[in-house]
Structures are given as C-alpha cells and as structure tokens.
Write a structure and sequence with these properties.
Number of strands: 19
InterPro entries: RmlC-like_jellyroll, RmlC_Cupin_sf, Uncharacterised_HutD/Ves
Number of domains: 2
CATH superfamily of the largest domain: Jelly Rolls
Low-confidence stretches: none
Helix content: under 10%
Strand order of the largest sheet: 2-3-4-11-6-9
Radius of gyration: 17 Å
Distance between the termini: 20 Å
CATH class of the largest domain: Mainly Beta
Protein name: HutD family protein
Mean pLDDT: 90
Pfam families: HutD
Largest sheet: 6 strands, antiparallel
CATH topology of the largest domain: Jelly Rolls
Structural class: mainly beta
Length: 204
C-alpha cells in the first residue's frame, strides 16, 4: 500500500527516445527496481515530435489518451487498420504487441499513457468532469487537464479527514499503489476535466 504521491508535469523526469522522435516523462512504474521493463504497471506522459513506430511491449495492455495537440494517426502495419487519436480526453486501448506506426496530424502531440502487464493487472481510463469516488484497494493515477480539483481522503463517516485534502490544478496530478484509503475527487470549478486511470489486479 502507498500514500498518494503528488506531481507536476514540469518536474517529471524526462527521457529522450532513442529514435529521436520524442520524449517520455515518467509518472510512476511499479514495482520500482533496476529493470525498467519489469513493471506491473506504468504511467507516463509522452511528447510525439516525429512520425515513426511505437516500441512493442509483449504481454502488455496499453491505453493512450490525447492531452494536447492535433493528435496522431495510429496504424497497425500488419493489418492496415487505423485509429485517429484526435479528441482530448478520449482513451484508446490496444495490445502492446501490435506493430503501431504513428503519423502526426499536425504539430507535436502530448499523450497520457498507461501500461499494465498481463495477466496480473488491468486498467480503465476515464475522462472525469464531475465528482469521482476512487476505489479503495486499487492503484491509480489522476491528471488534471482543466480547472481545479480537490482530492479528499475520506473517513468511514464519509467526511474528508483532517489534513487529508489537496487542491490540484492543470498539469498536476497524483498516483497511489494498492491504497486501502477511501478517497474522492471533487471539481472546484465549471468546465473541469481530469483523467483518472483506475489500475487493479485482474480477477482470477
């Protein structure tokens, strides 16, 4: 179990891609160890600057969500099927084994990425604009796109705990791993938008 870890986009560690086509800012990779590929789940924000292939990740489910930019066309080179990632906050799920080629539909694209290792982990990403009750016993990531949101750790009586609240603005977020805390995400303004990745052990 972990307490929430807060982050800001500008303070995330940056890694340039080996092919020079972009960069990744890692939010979290669990468990944390010396082998970067031996993750159970991983969350990051990627900047796509040039077209080219995605790296493949065997036995991995991926979810990509556009944060800003004109978006990208994602094409399977083995089947020719395409998906246009053009709507901010709309997630797209795909298998990490798929050979995906990307084509920019304009300028640079900024994307939110969640990866979970099969068969042990699963994830769902949703765009939130109203009160969200975060699931106890799960892991997760929240990232704010618009407006202000209050994250509350909630007691059994349903009220926020003392010193258990924090207000998050655009480009801020938090993550946690297998927390047994009850928590909520409360919009503070009109036209709020946040991404919530609910990450949990697969059934069975």
């Amino acid at each position: 179990m972990s307490l929430p870890v807060y982050f800001h986009y500008d303070r995330l560690a940056v890694s340039r891609w080996r092919n020079g086509g972009g960069e990744t800012r890692q939010i979290a990779s669990l468990p944390t160890d010396d082998d970067a590929e031996a993750f159970a789940w991983r969350a990051s924000i990627a900047t796509i600057e040039q077209q080219g292939p995605f790296s493949r990740f065997p036995a991995t489910d991926r979810i990509i969500t556009l944060l800003s930019g004109d978006g990208v066309k994602l094409e399977r080179s083995d089947t020719g099927s395409c998906h246009a990632l053009t709507v901010v906050g709309e997630p797209w799920e795909f298998d990490g084994e798929w050979p995906i080629d990307t084509t920019l539909l304009g300028g640079t694209s900024l994307d939110f990425n969640i990866m979970t290792r099969r068969p042990a982990w699963q994830a769902k990403v949703r765009a939130a604009s109203s009160l969200q009750l975060l699931t106890a016993g799960h892991s997760g990531v929240v990232y704010v796109l618009k407006g202000s949101w209050r994250y509350d750790i909630v007691g059994q009586e349903g009220l926020p705990k003392v010193n258990g609240s924090r207000v998050l603005g655009p480009e801020e977020g938090l993550w946690w791993h297998l927390s047994n805390q009850y928590a909520s995400l409360v919009p503070q303004d009109e036209h709020c938008l946040a991404l919530w990745a609910d990450i949990f052990p697969a059934a069975g």
